[in-house]
Amino acid sequence: MGNRGQKRTEAADELPADKRACSSSTEFRPSTSNSVVHTTMSSIQESHHDTDVDTSSSSTSGSSEGEKDSAYGSCESDNSYRDYYRRQSLGNQGKFKGVLSSLSKESDESVLLIALTELCELLSFSPDSSMSNSMADSYSPILVRLARHESNPDIMLFAIRAMTYLCEVHPRSSAYLVNHDAVPALCQRLMAIQYLDVAEQCLQALEKISREQPIVCLQAGAIMAVLSYIDFFSTSVQRKALSTVLNICKKLPSGCPSPLMEAVPVLCNLLVYEDRQLVESVATCLIKIVERVCQSSDMLDQLCRHGLVQRATHLIELNGRTTVSQSVYVGFIGILVKLAAGSIVAVRALFELNISHILKDILSTYDFSHGVPSTLMVDGHYNQVDEVLKLLNELLPPISREQNIQLAADKEHFFNNHPVLLHKFGFDLLPVLIQVVNSGVNLYACYGCLSVINKLVYFSKSDMLGFLQNTNISSFLAGVFTRKDPHVLILALQIVDKLLEKLPHVFLNSFVKEGVLFAVNALLSREKCSQSLFSVSSDESCQGSVPRAAVRCLCFASDAVQSPTGPEARTCKIEKETVQSLARHIRTSYFATDSTNPNFGITDVLQKLKTLSSTLTDLVHRFSSCMAPLQEKEDFYPVLHQIVSELSGNHPISTFEFIESGVVKSLVNYLSNGQYLGQKKVNGDGSVNQLYIVEKRFELFGRLLLYNFDPPLENSTFLALIRRLHSALCSAENFPVILSHASKLRNSYATIPYGRCTSYPCLKVQFVRGEGESSLGDYTESVVNVDPFLPLETIEGYLWPKVSRKKSEKLKEESPSHASQDVSTSQGKNPGPMESDTTSTNAHETQEVKNNLQLSVEVETVDVEQTKSDSMDIADVNAESLEKGRLNSSEDDSGTSLECTACCDDEDVAPKLIFYLEGQQLNHKLSLYQTVLRQQIEAENDIITNSNMWSQVHRVTYRRIVRHKPGCPKSCKHAVHSTPSEKPTTWWQHTPSFSSMFGSEMVDLEKPSPTYDILFLLRSLEGLNRFSFHLGSRTKIYAFAEGNTVDFGDIKVNTHSDLPQNEFANTKLTEKLELQMRNPFSVSVGGMPSWCGQLVNSCPFLFSFEARCKYFRAAAFGRPPIQPESPSHNTTAGMSGRRKKILVHRSRILDSARHMMDLHADQKAVIEVEYSDEVGTGLGPTLEFFTLVSHEFQKIGLGMWRGDRMANGSVSVEDESGIIFSSLGLFPRPWSPSSHSLSGLEFSEVLKKFVLLGQIVAKALQDGRVLDLRLSKAFYKLVLGKELTVYDIQSFDPELGGALLEFQALVERKRHLESRREGKSSLDLELDFRNTKISDLCLDYTLPGYPDYVLNSASDAKTVDLSNLEKYVLLIVDATLNSGISRQIEAFKSGFDQVFPIRHLQVFTEDELERLLCGECGFWNANELLDHIKFDHGYTANSPPVINLLEIMQEFDSKQQRAFLQFVTGAPSLPPGGLASLSPKLTIVRKTCSGWVDADLPSVMTCANYLKLPPYSSKDKMKEKLLYAITEGQGSFHLS
Predict the structure, then answer these.
(1) Angle at 583 between CA 578 and CA 589, to 5 degrees
(2) Which residues are known catalytic residues?
(3) How would residue 700 be classed by pLDDT, with cut points 50, 70 and 90?
């Protein structure tokens, strides 16, 4: 490393003079401050920078200081440099004159050769100022004359070489050489090649001259000269020749001379070459040529006859896509666009080449969620999809012939003569065009697709519209009408008009059923559609609002050739009333006959669904406060059954009918009893009653969907309803995807709130005190830079001390340290390494939106209770406070006291300021960027105007919150979970999930709205699916209680009928989120539209697991900004950047882990492990460390887990390792709140281990490591903040859980019989448990399996009987799930929060969190192994040892597979995604053996996932050696 600069110098010196870089001679220029000494010092300084990273900042500051000193303290050294250059320049001038004199004489050839050699050496090492203009002019005719020398090739070679160097040293000399006919002389040598080295030198000379004199080179025929014999040269020389052509093409004249057209066939032939750089140069030349001649149809026809269409079409086919860069690929599509726009010959040729099939493949395989955003530019060309859509539009004739009328007529005549081609065109492309629009692409792509569809329908004859049969064009058009832009609406109306004109019998009823007619009516009556799916804004703007470089009216969006006046200079073609006029024409022409019918446009299916919806709504109103579940069941069940039957019946229901019928809204009202819109506010016991009603309705609806039918999963009613809702959501939602607001990211300095540099622009804000606000002071600064991506609550934390009246006097005397400085000056600041690296990330983490399932919504009056943050930072809770029970918890509900404490907390924790922007109150949980964005979305609908966002000053008004004194806990919104004793049934047995759905907001949408209703119902159904086991168990218990079953065995639910989680994922929303996260501004969730965070947190099931993983990393850790054309390919799952190497001891793994976390838990550096007395370090040892720590936490005797020190239930102890093993996962061991030690083990030590476990788990997630720690699903639910019920006990202790459910069934049976026999005493009831009385079971008030855990020390009862059985079960459930483990769980969370906030995990389910933490554990198949394993260094996929190895790997059992992975990678399981996600890729290489091959063992490099495998003689021998290596080769890292 230290000698890097020296090696570079030596390499440069070894090059011959003619092979040196052109810039080498320009380093010695006396006109600049550079010198030989300075250059050497720079290289030394660079080398020092490379070897000592820690001193980089000091070396930079030192250099700047040195520059300051040199201005007045180092004049002597500067003068010596100038003297040196002056003397060198004078000496060189004398030498140049001497050489010129020798060349001017008619000397002997040997003398000329010596003089030319000396001239080349002088030019190589001389500064550019050594030669004057007159000297260069004097040399030019002589060198040209010698270049024409016929007898001596060496003279020719050195003369041409001297020309090349002369152009380098003295750029103006190219003009002198041109004046003396140097270009024809060089071209002459290339057209008649006698000596190959002379020809190569000619190419180099022409390349230099063409940079300054391209037109002269073109006129002299240089293009054909360099291309005529290009095949004879090497690849590097061919590249040089193409550089000459490219220099000429970049500055072509307005016309296109014939020499250029002659070169086109040669250039087309070069496109098939394999060298990528060569092909890209050729492609760029052709792109420039076509751009120059695109206005001339004759020229374009000539290009087509030269084979350009065929070559370009072949290049854009998918199999040739990887040969060129994305920008060149898009540019070649642009060539075809221009050819099709101006040449009928090109159109014919493209259809002969089956262009529709090629473009269909391009669009159908294009990943819209990972594509380059269309608002960005790629080397001056628009995005690939835009270019493809332009090509499709140009292939078809225009509908309105405003220009180039003859070409339009030729195209139409061509399709009239070949209707089959148009039919095939539509058959290939219509489905994929609909797919593109439905994927949620930007408005320009949507407009382009609709333009193509409109032309297809317009020019196709009625009998040739068969390509519409396989697509639901009616439903598609109904979805298009949800767009707001008039350009899009007009195209949709034109398509509707033509379809009804050509095929009225086919589309008339279809348009009514799918809602097209309803949309047309909505366009004519805004009042009618104010709450409709098809509402239209009254003030549409035709000008788009993407970044300034791409702003263009949609009227000109598909133009192949942009107007020279620019898109801004052209006016929109749409008149004000065009949309309404066209809609009125359709209504009067095709639907006028039945317009007087009040039910016109309502189908029978829609009418029936409306009736059922109305009936259900009436029932909800009637039973809104009724507590008679049996009566509810009798009335609601028939209506619900009819609705479900209708939705899953044989009658097809369109998306429009489904939404417009109101069924979704009525179902939501039924499930929530009107609570989901906040229509009812009932306090105290009324809230309990409302929640109880909700529980019973969910049960009834769940039984109807999940248990009354038993069809195959793919045909179930439940799945059909889910898919119908997703289809409706895709049609109704209009969440915007906001792409970059600036052409490129730039660094800024954010004064507020932290005073630090950012890699993105800041918003300019002026904070103004509200009018009449006397309790606050004025903010001292006029305009400040504000970090746009931090939530407003963070900005409030900065602003409050400066504007609060009690501190205002003090602040007036002090100048703010950051805010007082000028913005332009501040941008030059650079915080220290730690500040710039960690502070920004921590700021995002600690102040980010706390989106559990409760999202704040903007209201007119501020509810302080709903905006307060948590009163307790769990990260600050230590083991002692947890042990002493300082975290208040209730036996009945662990969250009750804690939440009420939050409501009654000190006011310093609550928000103190309200912010307003343009009169609208701002949400504290959103960032300022999101707030500004949302206002623009509300104002402009489809397109966001953002060119002025960063330049304009945003005036933000602040006021103080009017605070209301919080009431008693009874009035607290969180107090509704207190245990009621008068409820019809026990509260603890119910699932808390359903009722919690109605206290939160999902997204900031207008309510009621179809999208909000659909989202709410989807969330409700997803909750039903997750708790299907609970509902099934409850149903069986009620059946037993009512006497329908008498056997306790019937209570058990054997199978789970859960739908796969991916059935709830919405493809369209997932693609939108993926695309949004790829935006360069999405460095945190504050840089995304607010709907992203709100939906991911409230409805995470809508998005794929992979998308949520990316969102999780952005929310929890942030990410460096991604440049549009340079996507990050970070192979490490953890945080990129700084790394910390930690030395650990194998004999003290837990102590090493504790020491590591004490030092580095709160740091963002990636941890790498090195073991003491071992040589291995890096990825492999680090993964093994996390595995070993996982095993340490599972050791017996720690007092952490159920089953420790005993064999209880499904928990056992592995004898050899002393590790607790549970097939169902580990769950915390209950500790009595009154117990502080047990068998010599202090409870405080147990809490410390849970704190450490939380730190390790969080660090593993942060760094992307996997743990070998199987935790129970119930534990994960507690980690995710979910509540547990008696039904969850079966997930980790089936015996105890089953017994408790049977006891519960007995309690319910007793309650039911008592209600039926009111006159009889309960003692008369004959109830027993499996033919045994409860009292005979001799149960006492201790926790089963834990005799030291006394359930109720204050109780008088000694044993359990039927009268107190319910209390006994309640106490067991509380001890097992709440009071006995709450301190351990809080300790785990406190350790976790020290690394990053645990709330970010709530976007995952329990299964997904286990997958994220513990990786994949499935078995491999042959295809997976072949696809994701690399074979190298002596092995291929067909090598016999490789075939044997793959067969052995497939034969591994679970234990052997884990051992193999541990041996090769350092971890016993694969990361999420399996082998495909393993990075680096698993590689198998041949191991060279010194002796007998069967005697050697395999070896590995775990850091590279590298297996060195000897070529064993047989499969059996390989398996024997491999199994020995993976079982005995664990536990250390040494050289292999």
Answers:
(1) 125
(2) 1503
(3) confident
